[in-house]
Amino acid sequence: LMCFGYTMMPDISKIINKDTGLKIIFGISGIYLTLQAALRSLDYQDSWAMQNLQAPYTLFLVILFAVFLLEDKFENLLLYSIAARVILFLLPNLKYDFFLGVSLDQHIQYTLTENIIKTQSIGIPSDVLVSARYYADSPLFHTAIASFGILTGLDVVQAFKFFPLSLNLLFPLYFYIILRKMSVKNLSYLKYSLFLATLGGSYIVTGTMFIFPFLLGFLNQVISLIQKPERIRYIVLLVLIVGATMAHPIETLNFIVILLAVSVMVNLVEGFRREYLIRHIAVGLVLDLGWIWLRESQFRYFAILFLERGGGGGGITPTFFLLLR
Predict the structure, then answer these.
(1) What is the pTM of this model?
(2) Distance between CA atoms of 242 and 16, rounded to whole angstroms?
(3) Do 325 and 296 form a contact (C-beta atoms < 8 A)?
(4) Mapping DSSP to helix (H, G, I), strand (E, B) and coil, where does residue 305 land?
(5) What is the mean pLDDT for each group of 10 consecutive residues in the chain (325 residues)?
(6) Fewer CB atoms inside 10 Å of the end CB: C or N, the chain?
(7) Which pLDDT does position 63 carry in this prediction?
(8) Residues 6+ apart with CB under 8 A from 222
(9) 101: alpha, beta or left, given left = phi > 0 and alpha = psi -120 to 50?
């Protein structure tokens, strides 16, 4: 009977190959991590989002890194990367009743978003802080969150928790497209770049987080223009610049200045063979600066940020959770 049982037992190694084994281990570690976060649901904020989740969190990252070492198909790694970002950015949403944030940005954006949903119009509440004019005059962020909440039926807090999750899914795809356009052939370089893109990002809901898809799209279009200067790519570039400006003009300005400086240096080295690139990015700079100049609150914020304080953000001591309670 033992011999008969042995001969009838299937060869597990033939059923579960390397790819299937990786998927099973990755899936189990991801489910275990998310369950641990859900079982620790809190109505206040920890000192660190992964507090009391260190062991399953570390295990998941180790398994994720092993997947990137063992998997040879870059397209499969892209799927793993997107799945990992879903899991990682679900953790604070499962663990906490409210979204993460202790800086002034979250409070202002929350107030402006709530006002849109209540009044069904884009405006400025009478009791909002004077500093909120900066975000009120660049309404794309809170307008997008309000639209997301209305379309999905989620309240403001839930919309603030899950809207950033939908944005963060785009990061690996953007990096994949950019690396492919740069014609990177080295598989190890592709793997580790995508791995870092998987882990990169912020749990904190801020305007900077919101404009990153615009800025990565902006960078993608610049690379496309370097390869082939077509008019449609230039138009898409301007649309992305306008979108980023309407969300967070100061961060957009920083990014444009950096890209403009890089394009100037590249042209100096290459004898200004791509002079058109400087012109295209300079137009974006003019659009962004024009928006800041025309909007009084934008210009005031710009002056305070760079002239009086010399840079830096404005944080507050009370957590968002305590304020809502």
Answers:
(1) 0.71
(2) 50
(3) no
(4) helix
(5) 47 58 88 90 74 88 90 85 87 78 70 82 66 73 86 86 78 79 70 80 65 78 79 84 82 83 81 77 83 68 54 42 42
(6) N
(7) 92
(8) 237, 259, 263, 277, 281
(9) left
Residues 144 and 256: their CA atoms lie apart, in Å, by 23
Instruction: Tell me the C-alpha distance between 84 and 197, whole Å.
Output: 11
* Greatest extent of the chain over all pairs of C-alpha atoms, in Å: 87
Structure-token pair, residue 324: 């809502």
DSSP state of 248: -
Judge whether 64 and 57 are in contact, CB under 8 Å.
Answer: no
pLDDT, position 264: 84
Amino acid 218: pLDDT: 79
Those residues whose C-beta lies under 8 Å from the C-beta of residue 53, and which sit 6 or more positions away, are: 33, 36, 37, 40, 91, 95
**Residue 42 main-chain phi, psi, to 5 deg:** -130, 155
pLDDT value of position 32: 93
What does the block give as tokens for 83? Answer: 């799945």
Burial class (CB in 10 A: 0-12, 13-18, 19+), 47: exposed
Counting every residue, how long is the chain?
Answer: 325
Measure the CA–CA gap between 6 and 10, rounded to whole angstroms: 9
Question: Distance between CA atoms of 60 and 74, rounded to whole angstroms?
Answer: 20
Take residue 174 and report the two structure tokens written for it.
């953007």
Nearest partner of 169 among 216, 237, 208, judged by Cα: 216
Q: Per the structure block, which two tokens stand in for 103?
A: 């800086």
Q: Which three-class secondary structure state does DSSP give residue 42? A: strand
Query: From the CB of residue 95, how many other CB atoms can be counted at a distance below 10 Å?
Result: 23
Beta-carbon contacts of 28 under 8 Å, excluding residues fewer than 6 positions away, are none
Q: How far apart are the C-alpha atoms of 213 and 242, rounded to whole Å?
A: 13
CA distances from 199 to 12, 44, 83, 203 (A): 33, 25, 12, 11
C-alpha closest to that of 102 among 252, 216, 202, 245: 202
